[in-house]
Structure to design on (411 residues):
């Protein structure tokens, strides 16, 4: 390790300050805010060195196993009270083919996914549409529900009782009572922090017309998830106009919450992709160098053991490079449904994902929506109604029994 640090210290373009910061990380120190902010000064010339340090740190904490979750994407409703400047998922009642999926449709989709070996039912939906649209309120009332969250709970319960899939819900911001309510029918839950910059919520910014994207609101939800011991996924949306320092500040807030509660099971670095017919259709996307810097900085700030993910379908030809910058997970991959948030970006074939992962010296393993360490070591994070279902799926290491071969053979 000493020789490794000496070799990196001679890398061209690395300032003394940045070099000292990375040295501290490799010695096992948690970076201070000032130290982390110095990573913003990393030059393009020094990027391979920074990525190498991040990959080394990943190897120390996570080894050479890279995971993914075989999932089905269930868009329960695409109605949403928010209007984010980049979102193509959201629909108004006049645009939507249906206001909500029926419960029978949800179960039928989950059963089809079960036949293909999926273990995660990813529920993605708009934020509290009944608060904006009378059509949503009326639909819920006619079907016996007061809120979308009540309907989501019933959909998760049906999937949990009628299939072997495990729900993972991303319903937006929630109250403490709602999170506790959903915990009983979800293996894990998630909410993207996206960014803590209030500047992005100002007029003309991507979050100006999205009240649920206010940083204080999202941070409150992340904190409540920790208090309730919910295995939680969060992350950053990068390239929507934020600065490097704003990304660092966001990563620091995630790190601090995880150090306090231990519940952030996964951090996603999701690149912004411009969508037609959205206000940000002409907004430039981040370069690959900038994405790699962000991933490497995330690993160095978050530490060696945090699970770090970049979705491979959003960088279809270059995604293996993220393995060289410190990630250890590819996220959900579906053999059945598209990525409704990024419909233009198909999932990679698992045979291709396996080949490209193994070419770089890693082992690809399927996982349930809860990461192995939470199943084996942090059992208090798993609801009693979920525990026996999880253990029926996994091997002794906490990954899905049968490994990658069962999926590659059927895709």
């Amino acid at each position: 390790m000493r020789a490794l640090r000496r070799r990196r210290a001679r890398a061209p373009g690395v300032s003394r300050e940045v070099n000292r910061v990375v040295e501290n990380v490799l010695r096992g120190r948690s970076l201070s805010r000032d130290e982390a902010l110095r990573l913003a000064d990393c030059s393009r010339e020094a990027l391979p060195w920074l990525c190498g340090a991040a990959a080394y740190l990943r190897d120390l904490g996570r080894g050479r196993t890279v995971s993914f979750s075989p999932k089905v994407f269930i868009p329960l409703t695409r109605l949403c009270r928010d209007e984010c400047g980049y979102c193509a998922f959201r629909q108004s009642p006049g645009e939507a083919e249906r206001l909500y999926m029926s419960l029978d449709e949800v179960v039928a989709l989950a059963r089809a996914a079960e036949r293909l070996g999926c273990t995660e039912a990813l529920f993605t939906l708009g934020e509290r549409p009944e608060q904006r649209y009378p059509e949503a309120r009326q639909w819920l009332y006619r079907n016996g529900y007061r809120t979308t969250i009540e309907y989501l709970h019933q959909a998760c319960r049906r999937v949990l009782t009628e299939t072997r899939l495990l729900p993972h819900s991303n319903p937006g911001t929630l109250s403490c009572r709602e999170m506790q309510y959903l915990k009983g029918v979800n293996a894990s839950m998630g909410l993207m922090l996206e960014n803590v910059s209030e500047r992005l919520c100002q007029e003309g910014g991507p979050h100006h017309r999205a009240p649920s994207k206010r940083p204080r609101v999202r941070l409150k939800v992340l904190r409540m998830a920790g208090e309730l011991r919910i295995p939680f996924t969060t992350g950053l949306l990068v390239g929507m106009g934020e600065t490097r320092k704003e990304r660092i500040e966001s990563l620091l807030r995630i790190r601090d919450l995880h150090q306090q509660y231990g519940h952030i099971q996964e951090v996603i670095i999701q690149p912004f992709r411009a969508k037609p017919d959205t206000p940000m259709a002409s907004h430039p996307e981040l370069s690959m160098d900038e994405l790699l810097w962000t991933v490497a900085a995330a690993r160095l700030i978050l530490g060696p053991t945090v699970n770090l993910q970049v979705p491979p379908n959003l960088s279809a030809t270059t995604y293996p490079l993220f393995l060289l910058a410190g990630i250890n997970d590819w996220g959900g991959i579906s053999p059945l449904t598209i990525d409704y948030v990024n419909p233009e970006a198909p999932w990679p074939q698992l045979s291709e994902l396996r080949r490209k992962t193994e070419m770089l010296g890693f082992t690809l393993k399927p996982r349930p929506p809860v990461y192995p360490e939470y199943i084996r070591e942090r059992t208090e994070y798993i609801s009693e109604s979920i525990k026996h279902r999880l253990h029926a799926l996994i091997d002794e290491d906490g990954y899905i029994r049968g490994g990658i071969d069962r999926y590659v053979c059927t895709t």
Summary: DSSP finds 15 helices and nine strands in the chain. Confidence is low (pLDDT under 50) at residues 3-10. The beta strands are 65-77, 120-125, 166-170, 188-190, 232-238, 264-271, 308-309, 329-333, 363-366. Residues 244-261 form the longest helix (18 residues).
